[in-house]
Amino acid sequence: MHELSLAMQIQGTVLKAAAEHEVQDVVEVDIEIGELSLFNPDQVEFWLRQLFRDTVAEGADIRVATIPPKVKCDQCGYEGAIEVPSDPGFHIFMPALRCPRCDAPGLEVERGREVTIKNLRVHKAPPGGAHA
């Protein structure tokens, strides 16, 4: 159900931006979800399609890209990717991250936790806000 909460936040941001810019239709929504955020991209997309019904974003092409994690180890200096095993338990508890080179705990996460609305493509309403 975390995905529903996230989708509601994304919906609110998209519709607020659409209203502020007098958008007629939202055509595409590009979202990036970091793998360490542990959100399921398919579920986020599903909820967005439900939440966009009867709005200017209904029917928008929703594209969700996943961002692999990048970490830095203070012990051995490793900088790079790590693998995050798929485990339903990680929706409750964050996995303990360890350095793939020296097995030290306490990695600094440089990328992979973020959720970003990367881009919106829209059709702008004609001047005066009238819909065609």
Per-chain topology:
Elements: H1 2-20, E1 23-34, H2 41-51, E2 61-67, E3 70-72, E4 79-81, E5 108-111, E6 115-124
Parallel strand pairs: 1-2
Antiparallel strand pairs: 1-6, 3-4, 3-5
Helix pairs in contact: 1-2
The secondary structure category is alpha+beta
Strand line-up of the largest beta sheet: 2-1-6
Largest sheet: 3 strands, mixed
The number of helical segments is 2
C-alpha geometry: elongated
Helicity range: 10-25%
Instruction: Please count the beta strands (DSSP E, at least 2 residues each).
Output: 6
The pLDDT mean sits at: 90
Query: What is the H/E string?
Result: HEHEEEEE
Strand content: 25-35%
Radius of gyration: 19 Å
Give the end-to-end Cα distance, rounded to a whole number of Å: 38 Å
* Poorly predicted sequence stretches spanning 5 or more consecutive residues: none
Q: What oligomeric state is this? A: single chain
Structure description:
With 132 residues, this protein is α+β, with helices and mostly antiparallel strands. Helices cover 23% and strands 30% of the residues. The protein is built from two helices and six strands; from the N terminus they run αβαβββββ. The chain has helices spanning 2-20, 41-51; strands spanning 23-34, 61-67, 70-72, 79-81, 108-111, 115-124. The chain has a three-stranded mixed β-sheet with strand order 2-1-6. A hairpin with a 6-residue loop joins β3 (70-72) and β4 (79-81). α1 (2-20) packs across α2. The chain is elongated. The mean pLDDT is 90.
